[in-house]
Amino acid sequence: MSVFRIGQGFDIHPFSQDPERPLVIGGEILPGPGLDGHSDADLLAHAIADALLGAAGLEDIGHYFPDTEPSTLNANSLEILEKVVEFIKKDGWEICNVDCSVILEKPKLQPYKKGIQERMSNILNAPVTVKGRRAEGLGFVGKGEGAACLVVALISKYE
Ligand SMILES: [Zn+2]
Q: How is the chain classified by DSSP, letter by letter?
């Protein structure tokens, strides 16, 4: 019998004051300013990882990759995501699909969307869809203070 589980992921990062810091979303480099964080602050990779961990009934990303850990300082978050995929595959889960909304005021996600989807789909070996949303000037996202990401992930296992 196939068992299905759904997971939700959410992440949020403030924009950095450092003009040199790259903006990394789903492994793509977008025109900055970048987001602040202990790792490369790839909020899409973090939210996907959290959605997958939640779906598999595991602890959250901060449990496995604490932001006090020197080894994850400026880490490539795609490597974190690859490890999460390994964790859940070890438990026998297959990823069905992942759907993501990145909420940021600028830059526009559209020109990067296809590249992000392809890269994420390759890491997850499953369809990944990514939507870009603006916050219409409202709140911290609308004022350009930060960006957020929402993800749902479906996984299955044959038992
Ligand atoms: Zn994050």
A: -EEEEEEEEEEEEEBPS-TTS-EEETTEEESSPPBP-SS---HHHHHHHHHHHHHTT---HHHHS-TT-GGGTT--HHHHHHHHHHHHHHTT-EEEEEEEEEE-SSS-SHHHHHHHHHHHHHHHTS-EEEEEE--TT-HHHHTTSEEEEEEEEEEEEE-
User: How many angstroms separate the alpha carbon of residue 61 from the centre of ligand 1?
Assistant: 9
Q: Confidence band (pLDDT; 50, 70, 90) for 71?
A: confident
The rounded Å distance from CA 14 to ligand 1 centre is 10
Give distance in angstroms: CA of 45 to centre of ligand 1.
8
Query: How many angstroms is it from 158 CA to the middle of ligand 1?
Result: 31
Q: How far is the CA of 62 from the centre of ligand 1 (A)?
A: 9
pLDDT in tens, 98-127: 999 999 999 999 999 999 999 999 999 999
All domains of the chain in start order, with CATH = 2-158 (3.30.1330.50)
Ligand 1: distance of its center to the CA of 1 in Å? 35
Is the model's pLDDT at 129 over the cut of 80?
A: yes
